[in-house]
Amino acid sequence: MSLDPEQLRRAMRAWTSGVTIVTAAHKDERHGMTVNSFTSISLDPPIVCLTMKRTSRTHDLVERSGEFALTVLSDAQQEISDRFAGKSPDLYNRFEGLETETLGLNAPLIKGGLAYFNCRVISAQPIGENTLFLAEVIAAKEANADNPLVYHNRMFWKLDSPSS
């Protein structure tokens, strides 16, 4: 008996995560998407993993370029998360009006984020409708100490100050 995907989706709503934008560039094309399926795997060597739906434009660019960049969003960047999640379908260029920078790769990073990562793909494994990318972090930068954008139960949340 197979698990109903909707049942899994409802249960996964209990998982709380930060929100990141993954971007990739190849030749003159660049694109990005909102993801929360990103995690650190190893500090030495520095390895992260990321999963993306194989039918996405960003996935195609990561596959062709062999690299990607990640911006960890602050709680002031919810609109950017929505934009890169495709909630503005009339907006073809998701980067329009945003300040970006790079750390050495061609993939743009979104200014105002909490942290940035440049990653080179070392392994890509198709799994279901997605691809699991393992990547070496070749550059990382903490940008500011604002609060993170947090996603839980299909909504964005703001963190209170830490308790002792």
Topology of this protein?
Elements: H1 5-12, E1 17-18, E2 20-26, E3 29-35, E4 38-43, E5 46-53, H2 57-65, E6 67-72, H3 78-84, E7 100-101, E8 109-110, E9 115-127, E10 130-142, E11 150-152, E12 155-157
**Alpha carbon gyration radius:** 16 Å
Into which percentage range does the β-strand content fall? 35-45%
In sequence order, what are the helices and strands, one letter per element?
Answer: HEEEEEHEHEEEEEE
Largest sheet, in brief, is: 7 strands, antiparallel
Number of helices: 3
Short description, anyone?
The protein has helices spanning 5-12, 57-65, 78-84; strands at 17-18, 20-26, 29-35, 38-43, 46-53, 67-72, 100-101, 109-110, 115-127, 130-142, 150-152, 155-157. With 164 residues, it is mainly β.
What does this structure look like?
This protein has 164 residues and is mainly β. It has a single domain (18-149), classed as Pnp Oxidase, Chain A, CATH 2.30.110. Helices cover 15% and strands 44% of the residues. It is built from three helices and twelve strands. The chain has helices spanning 5-12, 57-65, 78-84, and strands at residues 17-18, 20-26, 29-35, 38-43, 46-53, 67-72, 100-101, 109-110, 115-127, 130-142, 150-152, 155-157. Strand 4 (38-43) and strand 5 form a beta hairpin. The chain is globular and about 45 Å long.
